[in-house]
Amino acid sequence: MKRFLLPLAAVGALFLTSCQSQMEVSVELTNWNPTDTGKVWARFVQVTDDNVKALDSALVEDGRVTLQAELDAPQIFFVQIDGIQPPVMLFGWKESVEITGDAAILPFAPEFSGSDFADSLYAFTKNQTDFQAQARQMEGEYGRAMQTGDMTTAEALTQRFNGMYEKNEKDMVRFAENNGALGAFVANRYLYQADLESLKKVLAGVDGDHLKATEVVKLTERVAKLEAVSIGNKIPELTQATPDGTPLAISSVTGKVILVDFWASWCRPCRAQNPDLVALYNEFHAKGFEIVGVSFDENKEAWVEAIAQDGLAWPQMSDLKGWNNAAAELFSIRAIPQNVVTDSKGKIALRNASIEDLRAYLAKNLK
Question: Strand 64-69's sheet: what is its strand order?
Answer without folding.
Answer: 64-69, 23-30, 96-102, 111-113
